[in-house]
Amino acid sequence: MNKIENFIESRNNKEIYYSDINNLSIELNFNTLDIVKLLLDTVYTDYAITESKYKRLDQESFRAEVVKHYGKCVITGNCCLRELQACHIIPVKENGSYDLNNGLLLNNAIHQSFDDFMWSINPETLNIETRDDYCGTIIIYGHNNSTVNIDRYNKELMKNIAWHYDKFKNSL
Fold it and tell me: Domains of the chain: which residue ranges?
């Protein structure tokens, strides 16, 4: 455990990259991800796991990275790539980036309503919340308190989810 704790404490910016965890797993000859997540959840609560050190340059590479990372819609579970879109959590027009941490893979039917803040993901519970006056496809998932399968340990992703959720709450 000491090597893993030393690894965490050696991160000056309190951000731990998945690629570094993978390297640690290779060095220690076992998968350390679950242990690191447990330690971040219980002991090192001000540390976070971050997806990528690099910004995405354009929509095409952004979509490729989002598809590669998620593989299916984070809400519906649909894995038909023709029906999926890479969605910016914070829109580019509002200074959102093409970074993977600013992306979700969504079914075509719910992407636009996410962009229009008709629904959002509660950053505390990871449940879907919808506007009371909205009647679109997302209602199926919002009314049964579906939990979104995203990495709550990813500090940058969760910061972006919180931004979207705040904008959603302010639009009610």
Answer: 2-50, 59-170
How many helical (H) and strand (E) elements, i.e. helices and strands, does the chain have?
Answer: 7, 6
Residues 53, 108: Cα–Cα separation, whole Å: 28
DSSP state of 48: E
Q: How far apart are CA 6 and CA 32, in angstroms?
A: 13
What is the percentage of the chain residues whose pLDDT exceeds 90?
45
| Helix pair angle (2-9, 33-42), 10° resolution | 70
pTM over 0.85: no
Nearest by Cα to 25 from 35, 15, 38: 35
Could you please report the per-residue DSSP string of 61-81? HHHHHHHHHH-S-TTT----G
Tell me how far apart the alpha carbons of residues 109 and 105 are, in angstroms, rounded to a whole number. Answer: 12
Sign of the CA dihedral with 53 first, then 111, 83, and 106 last = positive
pLDDT tens column, 125-161: 999 998 888 878 888 877 666 789 899 999 999 999 9
3-state helix, strand, coil in the chain (%, to 5): 45, 15, 40
Measure the N-to-C terminal CA separation of the chain; round to a whole number of Å.
Answer: 47
